[in-house]
Amino acid sequence: MSLYALLWISSTSAGAQVLIGSSNNDSQSNAQSHAWSVYENSQGEILLVHLPPRDADPDAQIAYEPAVPGEMQAFRSLSSMPDGIAAIDNRVFMVFGRSRIPGIGANEGKPGKWVRKVYSGRAVRSPVGTAWNLMPQGRLDSEPMITHEGELVDLCATSSRLWALLEAEGEYMLLRMGQDEWEPIALPELSSQGSAPAAWRLSSVGDDLIAINVADQSAASAYVYGDDGWTVEWATIELTDPSIQPSKLIASPRGVVVVDRAGSASRIRIWSSAGVFTIASDVELPEGTELVAMGSVNRLIGIHRRSETTEAVENAPEDAPDLIQVFEIDLADGSIVYEGGPVVSNPVSEAELRLLMLMMMLIMGGVLVVVILPNNAESMSIPDGFSLADPGRRLLATMSDVFLVAIAVGMVFKVSAIEIITLSVITRSDVSWLVLPVTLAIGIVSMTLMEWLLGATPGKFLVGLRLVRANPGAMDRVRLRSAIVRNVIKWLLPPVVALALLDPEMLHRGDRATKTLVVSRIDGYDGSDSSKDSDSEA
Fold first, then answer.
1. Do residues 259 and 250 lie in contact, with contact meaning Cβ atoms separated by under 8 Å?
2. Whose C-alpha in 158, 234, 235, 352 is 20 to 30 A from the C-alpha of 131?
3. pLDDT digits (tens, 9 = 90+) for 475-521
4. CATH number of the CATH domain containing 77
């Protein structure tokens, strides 16, 4: 193996302080780019960090503010540093160091074979604020393990597949992750006449995998993997002296971004089938900054961790720079978009916080008004031929109404009624918090109209109940105002309705405030004796 390859591998091995990867979507796609990083914080914890998209999602049903430059969010701690990290769309993949699995079957009790475990997780936007959540919650998904021998040299993702490059005793093996296992793929065949043994690295452009031979210390050659195997379509590119700092090859939708040091500054070039183009030659970046490309905004994202001990960080002055520095560079002209410490996202935006406070004040005011309303039980009577509905039937009717409304709203937003009823819909990023307000609004309007016009909701019809005025004599249809007040209390103030369980007559405040009753018809009543019913009080 050449000196260049040795220096390159040592700079990106598991011992590195920072690992970083990003999704490499096709240039024709509207998909957002996500970036991820793993590093050790000042407390010695190994963190998995998400750098959310810097652009808006054009396919989202609800518009969100994109993440600001420098914004990042720590998702969880890891038990050990991965050997490699890569991303596809909003999912991050991590390959960990070799571990021995126990023997099974005939080999039970014996040492098993060495494997590399692979885990993944996906970022899902929180329905509130600008925060993101890691799914599945509290754990990571297990992917097929790498069972082949060798050290992990590179982990790379195209827009749809995950690839790993292993090296053992100077021999390289390219693997592609499948549904159940990793499939070996032959590397390009090189001419053996006067050429040094190959030293491979991986990169990608959209959905194309690029194998790069860096055995030559002064130049690199690229091979593109397609349906017809490997093809040579690119011109070679000049590389910097590896004794200074190995060039970084960064996957992006528009070509491989090559970053190398030119004197005290860094030079940024784009390498593709069209040739090599210099973007900038005087970008100031600290040595050891790890970089990835966010293709959807055409930027380089860099993370640099100061090499300081935990004690030095804790005793640093207040005005000292952050342990982690974030850099964002525009790939159009090489300008610095952001340079500084991480920007922490707020779980709730200022506008949403004001809205939540207003809603809480309205609810508390509504509860206070309803609770202190005068008791109208003395002036409430049951119409002739009816009796008060029992709590069980009323509960069944209410549950039926809620379920019907949830089904209707769910069909519009493409969510299940169970998700709405159990409030788990608030964890979804595509429908956000609109589902619940829409459900409440439709419930209030539809049930108000049905009680005013028909005297009953679908749930009440189902169990044989009706809503009537609390007047003696003949049954009277409720007024529109009464139906509105009842349903506003029932749908927006469920705790107030639940107080009916403590009421001797099983009437909630909506019943008493509007002087209405939920009743059921008395079987066999012929109207011959109305005195008992007309004089009875609710």
1. yes
2. 158
3. 788 889 889 988 888 888 776 666 666 666 667 777 777 888 888 88
4. 2.120.10
Identify which of 204, 224, 200 has the alpha carbon closest to the alpha carbon of residue 212.
200
Q: Of the candidates 458, 469, 472, which has an alpha carbon nearest to the alpha carbon of residue 519?
A: 469
Region of 378 please: left (phi>0), alpha (psi -120 to 50) or beta. alpha
Can you tell me the mean pLDDT for 121-144? Answer: 85
Q: Return the structure tokens found at 431.
A: 């429908």
Helix, strand or coil, per DSSP, at residue 20: strand
Query: Which amino acid would we find at residue 211?
Result: A
- Residues 229, 377 within the same domain: no
Q: Which two tokens stand for residue 530?
A: 């109305």
What is the value of pTM for the model shown? 0.68
What is each CA distance from 289 to 231, 300, 378, 535, in whole angstroms? 32, 11, 78, 86
pLDDT at 27 over 70: no
Looking at the fold, whether 175 and 235 belong to one and the same domain comes out as yes
Strand pairing report for 343-344 and 71-78: parallel
Single-letter residue type at 154: D
Beta pairing partners, 47: 39, 77
Answer whether 207's CB lies under 8 Å from 26's CB.
Answer: yes
CA-based diameter of the chain, in Å?
116
Instruction: Based on the fold, state whether residues 137 and 171 are members of the same structural domain.
Output: yes
Q: Which residue has the higher pLDDT, 124 or 11?
A: 124
- If residue 355 lies in a helix (H) or strand (E), which one and from where to where? helix 350-371
Contact criterion met (CB below 8 Å) for 165 and 176: no
Q: Which domain holds residue 452?
A: 350-535
Q: Are residues 170 and 228 in the same domain?
A: yes
